[in-house]
Design a protein that fits this description.
133 residues, two-stranded antiparallel sheet, six-stranded mixed sheet, Rossmann fold
Length: 133
C-alpha cells in the first residue's frame, strides 16, 4: 500500500527555480508538486490542486507573496494550509540558518537545499497537525 503523497504548491516567477524544486521534491517520492510562475496562478491552481503546503515567492512582477497569501487565506480550500515565503532579499548567511520567522510569517532564504526544504515542510505540517499552525 502506497502512502499518500503530500501536495506542495509553489508560486515563483523564476521558471527554472520552480522546475528545479518540483523535480527534486518529487524525486524523493513523498511529494506531488504543482507550480505556477505568476501571482495570478495561485488561486486557480489552489482551487484545483488543494495543496497540503504552499511555497510563495515574496517578490513577483505581477504581485506580492503577501497579497497572494491573503487571497489564499480567504479560500476554504487553503485557509488552513501552511505557507512559507521564499525570498532572495535575505540571504541564508545573513540569518545563519536556512529559515526564520518575520512578522509571524515563516520564510526560507534562497537558495534553498532539498534537504532543508523537505525538513521544513515536514516540520510545518507536523506543527499544523499539533495545532500550532
Amino acid at each position: 500500500m502506497t502512502a499518500k503523497k503530500l501536495k506542495v504548491m509553489i508560486i515563483d516567477d523564476e521558471v527554472n527555480f520552480t522546475r528545479l524544486v518540483r523535480t527534486n521534491l518529487e524525486s524523493l517520492g513523498d511529494y506531488e508538486v504543482r507550480a505556477g510562475n505568476r501571482a495570478a496562478d495561485a488561486v486557480p491552481l489552489a482551487r484545483v490542486f488543494k495543496p497540503d503546503f504552499i511555497l510563495l515567492d515574496v517578490i513577483m512582477p505581477d504581485g506580492s507573496g503577501g497579497d497572494v497569501a491573503a487571497a489564499l487565506a480567504k479560500l476554504p480550500e487553503t485557509s488552513g494550509v501552511p505557507v512559507t515565503f521564499l525570498t532572495a532579499a535575505i540571504k541564508r548567511k545573513e540569518l545563519g540558518a536556512p529559515e526564520g520567522v518575520v512578522g509571524g510569517k515563516n520564510f526560507m532564504a534562497k537558495p534553498v537545499t532539498l534537504n532543508d526544504l523537505s525538513i521544513h515542510i515536514q516540520r510545518r505540517l507536523a506543527e499544523k497537525n499539533l495545532g500550532k499552525n
